[in-house]
Design a protein that fits this description.
alpha+beta; 4-stranded antiparallel β-sheet
Length: about 150
């Protein structure tokens, strides 16, 4: 599979003040620690979706450079690992919106609405696929240690 984007350096998103504390998470292409989401170099994704090819033309949500690139990067990684970390779909979508607002992107509200309306299927599919592939997520504390009951 070919991807539209591949990170050449790590990207870091620090959750805005007042965000609930996210739990520790570590995977090959995303880490969460102290409310900071880090995506390393080498992560590949296709930007904003949905996109599909029709009669040789790409149809779907257009990308607007760094504005949608950064937002879709973090959003894609959060969706890819859905069910394995404790960030909810609503929080992932809000992060997508926040990253576009950093650049005062005039269509941020529209992209956010589209994400809210049309991505539940993809989130649920990722949660299901991750559960099947990896089993239930471990009970991990905020500091990254495994809790025992």
């Amino acid at each position: 599979m070919t991807y539209k984007y591949i990170t050449t350096k790590p990207f870091t998103y620090v959750a805005k003040k007042g965000t609930r504390p996210f739990g520790y998470f570590a995977a090959p292409f995303m880490g969460i620690f102290n409310n900071t989401i880090t995506i390393p170099a080498g992560y590949a994704w296709n930007g904003c979706f949905p996109k599909f090819r029709l009669f040789g033309k790409i149809i779907g949500a257009p990308d607007f450079g760094i504005v949608t690139e950064e937002a879709s990067l973090v959003h894609s990684a959060l969706y890819q690992y859905a069910g394995l970390h404790d960030v909810t779909k609503d929080e992932a979508d809000e992060i997508f919106y926040d990253l576009m607002k950093v650049y005062n992107f005039k269509l941020a509200w529209f992209y956010y609405r589209v994400v809210r309306l049309f991505t539940s299927y993809f989130w649920d599919k990722c949660v299901h696929d991750n559960l099947v592939k990896y089993g239930p997520k471990p009970n991990v504390g905020r500091n990254g240690t495994t809790k025992t009951n």
